[in-house]
Design goal:
- This protein has two domains: about 15-55, no CATH class; about 55-115.
- It is an all-alpha fold and about 120 residues long.
- The longest helix is centred in the last third of the chain and has 26 residues, at about 90-115.
- Helix content is about 60%, strand content about 0%.
- The chain starts with 20 loop residues before the first helix and ends in a 6-residue tail after the last helix.
Length: about 120
């Protein structure tokens, strides 16, 4: 039988990096910001991978809220377009207001998505 010894990272010698305490704090903070361990972060940066951050939970919650608003507004518009009896009292001005609100809500959503996608240094 032939045994093949697989080379692993743990079995390989580590690379030491000397840095000042402030520099270490910054590197640790950067690793946390992208959801990686310090070792994985440094390895990814060192081999040239572009490290992407994890999405901020508050921004995801905001997107979910905005999406819900769009769904409710779309539902009202759909009822009106199908001549549903529940929307018989809605006039053109009400529908135009709903359409305007949908546009404003879409603008909000785009703004939040840009904050999520753009790197923090660009903000």
């Amino acid at each position: 039988m032939e045994t093949t010894d697989k080379i692993t990272r743990k079995g390989s010698p580590p690379i030491k990096v000397y840095c000042l305490p402030e520099e270490r704090q910054q590197v640790v903070a950067n690793a946390r910001a992208v959801g990686l361990s310090l070792s994985n972060y440094l390895l990814n940066v060192g081999v040239g991978y572009q490290v992407r951050g994890i999405v901020d939970n508050k921004q995801v919650e905001e997107l979910a809220r905005i999406n819900g608003d769009l769904g409710r507004l779309g539902g009202l518009l759909k009822l009106w377009l199908t001549n549903d009896a529940r929307t018989a009292q809605f006039g053109e001005s009400t529908i135009r207001a709903v359409l305007s609100r949908i546009e404003a809500t879409q603008g909000q959503m785009i703004s939040v998505m840009q904050n999520v996608v753009r790197p923090r240094s660009d903000r």
